UniProtKB/TrEMBL annotation:
Belongs to the 'GDSL' lipolytic enzyme family. This is GDSL esterase/lipase. It comes from Prunus persica (Peach). Pfam families: Lipase_GDSL. Gene3D superfamilies: SGNH hydrolase. GO terms for molecular function: hydrolase activity, acting on ester bonds.
C-alpha cells in the first residue's frame, strides 16, 4: 500500500519545486546564437534561417518557428523547468508584445558570435545589437510594469547566454582573416575578453544572475565528422581540445568577475561533458544514432539544405542525438537542459 503514495509524494515535491522556481526566477532572458534563437532570424535578411519544414515537426502544433531543431531548444526547456512559460518568444517576432516578454524574451541570432566579424559571415545580428535590443526591451518593460517592478524583475531574472561555437567553426577555421591575426590560443583569449566585456555591459544594465554556457564538443558535430575523412569520420579531437581549453578560460573568467562585480551571480554552464556522454554512449540515454543528424543524410545539411524536398529525413528524431548536421534534437536538448537544472543552474532554483 505504501507504494501507492509514491506518485503523490513525487507530485507534491514537483509542484513545490515549481512554486519555488516561480518565486525565485521571474523571467528568462536569452542572448546567443542558433542554440537558443527562437526565431529572430526570421525577421532579418539572412540565409541563416529555419522557418520551414521539416524544422519544427515536433514543436507544439508541428510548425517551424525559426528554431534550429525538430522541437524545443534548451532555453525553452529551462524556462519550462523553472515553472515559467514552455517556450520563450523571439523579440523581433511582431505577434508578441511586452506582456509576452515580461516572463521571457529571446534576443539570440543564429550564426552570431562573440566576435563581430562572425555575425558578418551570414549577415546576422551581432552581439552588440542584441544588447541594444535588450536596452529597448528595458524601456518597454519599465513603461509596462513601472520602474521599480521592472528593475526588480531585471535583477532577479535568469540570463541565459549560449554563444561561441560559430566563432570557431564559421569564422576562425573557415575564413583566413582571423587565422592571419591570431593563433588559436590567442583567438580564445580574444573571445574571452569579449565575453567579459559583454557580461560587464549586462551588469551595468542591471543584470545580476547569468549563466554562460561553454562550448560543446564541436569536433563531434556531424558536419565536422563528415569532413574528417582521413580520421575515418571520427570526432575531430583537435577541435574538441580547443573547446575544452576555451571552456577552462571561460570558467576562470566567470569566477574572476564574480569577485570583481558586487552582487553578480554568474555561473559557467558546462555542457561539454554531458553532451560528449550522449554522443559516445547514446543508448544509455535512449538514443540510437550519434554520427549523423536526422534531417537529410544528416552529414552536412542544415538551414536551407534541410528542407521538405530532401527525401532522406528520418521518421523519428527521438532516436537521433542530432537534428541536423550542427544542432541537437529536442530529446538531446531535454537531456542537456535537465542536467543544467540539476547542476549549475540549481543555485537559482
Amino acid at each position: 500500500m505504501a507504494n501507492l503514495y509514491i506518485p503523490w509524494i513525487f507530485l507534491v515535491q514537483t509542484l513545490t519545486l515549481f512554486a519555488k522556481c516561480r518565486g525565485k526566477v521571474p523571467a528568462v532572458i536569452v542572448f546567443g546564437d542558433s542554440s537558443v534563437d527562437s526565431g529572430n532570424n526570421n525577421f532579418i535578411p539572412t540565409i541563416a534561417r529555419s522557418n520551414f519544414q521539416p524544422y519544427g515537426q515536433d514543436f507544439p502544433g508541428g510548425q517551424p518557428t525559426g528554431r534550429f531543431c525538430n522541437g524545443r531548444i534548451p532555453s525553452d526547456l529551462i524556462s519550462d523547468g523553472l515553472g515559467l512559460k514552455p517556450t520563450i518568444p523571439a523579440y523581433l517576432d511582431p505577434i508578441y508584445n511586452i506582456s509576452d516578454f515580461a516572463t521571457g524574451v529571446c534576443f539570440a541570432s543564429a550564426g552570431t558570435g562573440y566576435d563581430n566579424t562572425t555575425s558578418d559571415v551570414a549577415r546576422v545580428i551581432p552581439l552588440w545589437k542584441e544588447v541594444e535590443y535588450y536596452e529597448e526591451y528595458q524601456k518597454k518593460l519599465k513603461a509596462y510594469l513601472g520602474n521599480k517592478k521592472a528593475k526588480k524583475l531585471l535583477s532577479d531574472a535568469l540570463y541565459l547566454i549560449s554563444i561561441g561555437t560559430n566563432d570557431f567553426l564559421e569564422n576562425y577555421y573557415t575564413l583566413p582573416d582571423r587565422q592571419s591575426q591570431f593563433t588559436v590560443k590567442q583567438y580564445e583569449n580574444f573571445l574571452i575578453n569579449l565575453a567579459a566585456d559583454f557580461v560587464k555591459k549586462l551588469y551595468a544594465l542591471g543584470a545580476r544572475r547569468m549563466s554562460l554556457a561553454g562550448l560543446p564538443p564541436m569536433g563531434c558535430l556531424p558536419l565536422e565528422r563528415t569532413t574528417n575523412i582521413m580520421g575515418l569520420h571520427a570526432c575531430v579531437e583537435e577541435r574538441n581540445n580547443v573547446a575544452l581549453e576555451f571552456n577552462r578560460k571561460l570558467k576562470g573568467m566567470v569566477a574572476k568577475l564574480n569577485k570583481q562585480l558586487p552582487g553578480l551571480e554568474a555561473v559557467y554552464g558546462d555542457v561539454y561533458y554531458i553532451f560528449l556522454q550522449i554522443i559516445t554512449r547514446p543508448s544509455v540515454f535512449g538514443l540510437e544514432e550519434a554520427r549523423v543528424g536526422c534531417c537529410g543524410t544528416g552529414r552536412f545539411e542544415m538551414s536551407f539544405l534541410c528542407n521538405p524536398h530532401n527525401p532522406f529525413t528520418c521518421q523519428d528524431a527521438n532516436k537521433y542525438v542530432f537534428w541536423d548536421a550542427f544542432h541537437p534534437s529536442e530529446k538531446t536538448n531535454q537531456i542537456i537542459s535537465d542536467n543544467a537544472l540539476k547542476t549549475y543552474l540549481a543555485k537559482f532554483l
